[in-house]
Amino acid sequence: MKNIVIAFVLLFSSGICKAQVKEEINFQNVSIDQAFEVAKKENKLVFIDYSTKGCKPCKQMEIEIFVLHEVAKLVNENFVSVKIDPVKNKAEEKRAKEVYSITGFPTFIFLNSEGKILKEYSGYRNKEEFLSLIKEALRVK
Fold first, then answer.
1. For residues 83, 113, 38 and 107, what is the CA-based torsion angle, rounded to 10 degrees?
2. How far is it, in rounded angstroms, from Cα 104 to Cα 121?
3. How far apart are the first and last CA of the chain?
4. Alpha-carbon distances, residue 70 vs 74, 117, 125 (angstroms)
5. How far apart are CA 46 and CA 92, in angstroms?
6. Is the pLDDT of residue 40 over 90?
7. Residue 98: φ, ψ to 5°
8. Element (H or E) spanning 90, and its range?
9. Which contiguous run of DSSP H or E holds residue 70?
10. Is the pLDDT confidence value at 46 over 80?
11. Residue 27 contacts by C-beta under 8 Å, 6 or more apart in sequence?
12. What is the DSSP letter of 29?
């Protein structure tokens, strides 16, 4: 009986440890121009998440999709990621409209390190759809 209790405690405590490990997309605290510089140095692409604080689909992507191991691993290994809130950052709002023609949120832009758009999508995407977008961008590069 004592061995069963010890085994249960070990299994239960290891499950708690695994549940607390959270992987997510590693968004850099840099400008888009700085992201291009880092991407060139690291031989990566650039992923821009245009989202705003009050946007429900933006928040949904953040808490449901960006924290999934498979999504985070694929993005972190291949992209320098930047989250931009154009409502808070007027210079980026101008770029969002003039350069990328963004009209809604969230909008996801996958670019090469030179700034060429590989793929661009708007709106909430489930895990399978978002993984498909990432893989398409990686094929186009």
1. 0
2. 10
3. 59
4. 6, 23, 15
5. 16
6. yes
7. -80, -40
8. helix 90-98
9. helix 69-78
10. yes
11. 49, 81, 82, 83
12. S
